[in-house]
Amino acid sequence: MSTDMSTHYDVQALPAEQREHILRGFGLGWWRQLGQVAIVFGVVLLACWYVGLLDATTLLNGLPSIATLAGEAMPPDFSGYRSWIRPLIDTLAMSIAGTAIAVVFSLVVAFVAARNTAPHPLVFGVARVLLNALRSVPELIMGIIFVAAVGFGALPGVLALGLHSVGMVGKFFAEAIEHVDEAPVEAARAAGATPMQVLLHAVLPQVTPQFADVAIYRWEYNFRASTVMGMVGAGGIGFELMGSLRIMQYQEVAAILLVILAMVTLVDAFSGVLRKRFK
């Protein structure tokens, strides 16, 4: 007896009507996919036209100005590097503290924003609306609000990055919880575990690696975003960058951008090491 348990279908051996029906289905599916691709491509082209991306004349006219600015920024001027050390530390601390706030609040919100762990549909709906609200307000707007509330410095940047990040981190955390394997959850409930014990011993161990990956990625994003927060008065290296731009010291601007690039590269490399440890 053959041990091959796989099933093979010979289309040619089927009756003519069934064979024609199958082939027609494949043809319709192919045309349907082609139509969907054409619609998406058309929408993309329309958006590009609307924003002027297809206006070759305007783009070509801007090239000389870009070349002039690039020439004025060379060579980069690193003479003021000593004054950038403290702002860089502020930027790094801002990104770490903002990410920590986001992770702590997201851990609380995510379990009530996931369908399989929310205690009540109303609580689930409120949690989702809260995450959407935090995610919909850009961190720059939050930064302006917190600068007006608590003054200049790194604190408003931390608050803005942290609260804005809760919207995205909490969403990812909630989706990870919704996709857990239900077998350990059912086993814990069958053993008489309380709802909190089920979360701690059946749900949390499954999602911890994903939580760590999302938190590390968000830290990378927050470091880049924290350089922008300085432009609204939240301190950091972005504040120094804006100061150089205002007085048109383009050589210094180029140097600061290179420093930011180096720091982003280091943060990216370090986050890669952290991801390997959490896998």
UniProtKB/TrEMBL annotation:
<keyword id="KW-0472">Membrane</keyword>
<feature type="transmembrane region" description="Helical">
    <location>
        <begin position="140"/>
        <end position="163"/>
    </location>
</feature>
<feature type="transmembrane region" description="Helical">
    <location>
        <begin position="92"/>
        <end position="114"/>
    </location>
</feature>
<feature type="transmembrane region" description="Helical">
    <location>
        <begin position="228"/>
        <end position="247"/>
    </location>
</feature>
<keyword id="KW-0813">Transport</keyword>
<dbReference type="Pfam" id="PF00528">
    <property type="entry name" value="BPD_transp_1"/>
</dbReference>
<keyword id="KW-0812">Transmembrane</keyword>
<comment type="similarity">
    <text>Belongs to the binding-protein-dependent transport system permease family.</text>
</comment>
<protein>
    <submittedName>
        <fullName>Phosphite transport system permease protein PtxC</fullName>
    </submittedName>
</protein>
<keyword id="KW-1133">Transmembrane helix</keyword>
<dbReference type="GO" id="GO:0015416">
    <property type="term" value="F:ABC-type phosphonate transporter activity"/>
</dbReference>
<feature type="transmembrane region" description="Helical">
    <location>
        <begin position="34"/>
        <end position="53"/>
    </location>
</feature>
<dbReference type="InterPro" id="IPR005769">
    <property type="entry name" value="PhnE/PtxC"/>
</dbReference>
<keyword id="KW-1003">Cell membrane</keyword>
<dbReference type="GO" id="GO:0005886">
    <property type="term" value="C:plasma membrane"/>
</dbReference>
<keyword id="KW-0997">Cell inner membrane</keyword>
<dbReference type="InterPro" id="IPR000515">
    <property type="entry name" value="MetI-like"/>
</dbReference>
<feature type="domain" description="ABC transmembrane type-1">
    <location>
        <begin position="88"/>
        <end position="271"/>
    </location>
</feature>
<feature type="transmembrane region" description="Helical">
    <location>
        <begin position="253"/>
        <end position="274"/>
    </location>
</feature>
<dbReference type="InterPro" id="IPR035906">
    <property type="entry name" value="MetI-like_sf"/>
</dbReference>
